[in-house]
C-alpha cells in the first residue's frame, strides 16, 4: 500500500463518523487507516469497531490508559505498516475532501525534494457548515519565514514522507499543548515542507475543542518553542522577533477573549472575498 492514514481518537463520538467516512470515500483508495482510541469513555470505540468490521483498511488499536495526543500519534506511527511510503495525518473531528490524498500524493511525487505537504483549509462549525477559510503560505521559503511568527501548517491536512519522519523523530509528549508546532519546527529546521493553496480539509472549530480549554497553556508552550528557534540561522528575522514579543501580553487576557481574538484573526469569513 502507498499511504498509512494515522488518526488518534478520544471521546470523539460527536463527529467521528463524518471524519471516518471522509477518509474511506477518498478517490485514491490504496491506503490503510490506522486508528488509536486513546481510552475513550464514550461510544468512540464501538463506532470504530463497526467500521473495522466492514472495511479491511481500518486497523483499530486502543490505549489501555489515556496517553495524550503526542504519545498516541507516536503509537500510530509505530503501528503503521512498514510497506507504506507516506503518512497522512487526520483528526477525528475534521473532514477530508474527497480528492485530498490523490492531489497530495501527485504533488509529492512531482516534488521529491519536499518532506511533506499540507494545504489550506475550510473552517467549519459544529454543524459542519463552512464559516471561513484559512490560507497558509505555500512556498517552502515562505513557510520557513513564517515558522516563528505562527504555525503555518495545519496538522490534519499533512501528508509526510516516511523518510522525513525517520529523520525528524517522534512527537515530544512534553509539549502536549503544542506538539504539532514542535514537530513542524523540528522538521522544517532540517527539511522543506509546502502547502497546496487549494483547501483539502474541513477543519472544525467547536466548543469542546481541546485548544480552547487549554489556550493559555498552548500560548506558553508556543512561546517556549519559539524562543528555542528564534535566533537560529534558518528562522531568524527582525519581524519574527517582534511577532514573538507581541504575544506575551495575550497571557494577561481572559481565555475566552483570546479564543475570540484568534478566531477573528485566524480565518476569513466564508462570504468575504479572498485577495
Automatic annotation (TrEMBL):
Record domain Glycosyltransferase 2-like: where: 4-165
Entry keyword annotation includes Kinase: no
Superkingdom classification of source: Bacteria
GO molecular function, one term: hexosyltransferase activity
The organism of origin for this protein: Victivallis lenta
Keyword Transferase: yes
Key words, A-Z: Transferase
Protein name (record): Glycosyltransferase
